[in-house]
Amino acid sequence: MRFAPALTLAALAAFAATPASAMEAKQTIEREVSVTQPDGSVLIAREPADLVKPGDALVYTLDFVNTEAEPVTGINMAMPVPAEVRFVEAIDALADSTVSYSADGGQTYGDMATLQVSAEDGTLRPASNDDVTHVRWTIDRAIEVGEQGMVAFRGQLR
Asked: Which fold has domain 4-157?
């Protein structure tokens, strides 16, 4: 099965509260694979997600750089979780950021401990990883001129 083009288009990141020219970003999608080493140990490696199949572990990464002439503040970066991907975990590789999650298409965000969704009977239930539609990183400090960073999440192709 060849899903990569749809996955790439579905995972465009959004910068909120930031001038459009303030940040440059590049998103990549990689597949995690197990590689057995000569000594018998197993290493988890990443490769381009050109060809993926159900059950594959995927990593969505957003690399960014501040291209402005001054530090940038008030940054929120959100990545949608494609419908064909089950959210597994956020990879918080950026210091001084807060990760929040949405289960309603990015309308509202919260932490996983308090995120709720409507059950079939109309009552609220705790959200699970299957319910996550977006992941958002709020940067709690200024991104300095020329500073580079990345945020990422791990998912599994349904």
From this structure: Immunoglobulin-like (2.60.40)
